[in-house]
Amino acid sequence: MTGAAGPTVDAEITWLLHRAAQRMHVVTGEQAEKHGLSLRDHIVMSALDKTPGMTQVELAKTLGLDKTTLMSLLDRLEQQGLVVRRADPRDRRARLPELTPAGDERRATVAAASTAAELAALSSFSAADVAVLRRMLFELIGTGTDPGSCL
Amino acid sequence: MTGAAGPTVDAEITWLLHRAAQRMHVVTGEQAEKHGLSLRDHIVMSALDKTPGMTQVELAKTLGLDKTTLMSLLDRLEQQGLVVRRADPRDRRARLPELTPAGDERRATVAAASTAAELAALSSFSAADVAVLRRMLFELIGTGTDPGSCL
DNA sequence: TATTGTTATACTCTATAACTATA
DNA sequence: TATAGTTATAGAGTATAACAATA
């Protein structure tokens, strides 16, 4: 497409990213589903663990989710008793989702299985390559996003 | 999550990939849409250009699309006069989609705009880093897929 | 029997708009 | 007026099942 350069790997980065994400979604998602969670459930719960005290809008922005998308995720997690929405004492409009003890236990279980699966899928790469990948993805996401959201 | 190691960038690779793909999808997709195509339309047409003579099943496998997903894409492209489905003389079940002259012209236009947008989005990275990224994504996709599909 | 193309269908993800209660 | 949460809804993207024609 660009011309004479690449031999086999000249496909669009956009589509390669899409398919790689799709594949890793399967790999880690099936770990989460073993414990009754979707990948996105797990992502939300990880964020609640790493950065507690966020409002729902802040949480959505951090994860790159639409606030309405986050709603259904939180609804389901709350219904399962894994998350509770607490009132923010400083702003009566806001609600602060947080993990319940049961939620945190589930989160830790899934986190272990998920990262293990991720490591296995990346096992053929050098640590340096993985570091490059991680840095590039992170910077790519940051482009166009306001700073401050450090996932 | 893994423990004490990473300072800021310790998020799951899976989610980073997802969001990076999402972002690049916007970047290159809006170029395609300037010319009346979706990103996926463009991906299909690029594949038809690079590897002509594939059946629909082969095309779907190459692109990592479900065959039923490909159907609606081809339907729309055929309806717009950008693609035709020709009969395979060697297998009367099979049909070989190919670009029309109009389709190839449109494809070339979108390809130029799309790769330019991709390059711009990746402009802050070194060529070596982009090469690492491309190679890793490619290998990641290959895992679990039968060889032979070289996109 | 297996495979290609096809249709119908459903489920998930995502985004938009509008409403409510606060600020 | 602006913002946080919420609801309803619609549009993509994806996958499953079933069918016809052909191998």
What's a quick, concise take on this entry?
The structure is a homodimer of 151-residue chains. With 151 residues, chain A is mainly α.
Structural description of this entry:
Two copies of one chain form a homodimer. The first copy, chain A, has helices spanning 13-34, 39-50, 56-63, 67-79, 101-121, 127-142, and strands spanning 83-87, 95-99. Chain A is mainly alpha-helical. The first copy, chain A, has one domain (23-142): Arc Repressor Mutant, subunit A, CATH 1.10.10. A two-stranded antiparallel sheet of chain A has the order 1-2. In chain A, a hairpin with a 7-residue loop joins strand 1 and strand 2 (95-99). Chain A binds a DNA duplex (23 and 23 nucleotides) through residues 38, 40, 55-57, 65-69, 71-72, 85, 88, 91-95.
Task: Outline the secondary-structure elements.
The structure is a homodimer of 151-residue chains.
Chain A: H1 13-34, H2 39-50, H3 56-63, H4 67-79, E1 83-87, E2 95-99, H5 101-121, H6 127-142
Helix pairs in contact in A: 1-2, 1-5, 2-5, 3-4
Chain A binds a DNA duplex (23 and 23 nucleotides) through residues 38, 40, 55-57, 65-69, 71-72, 85, 88, 91-95.
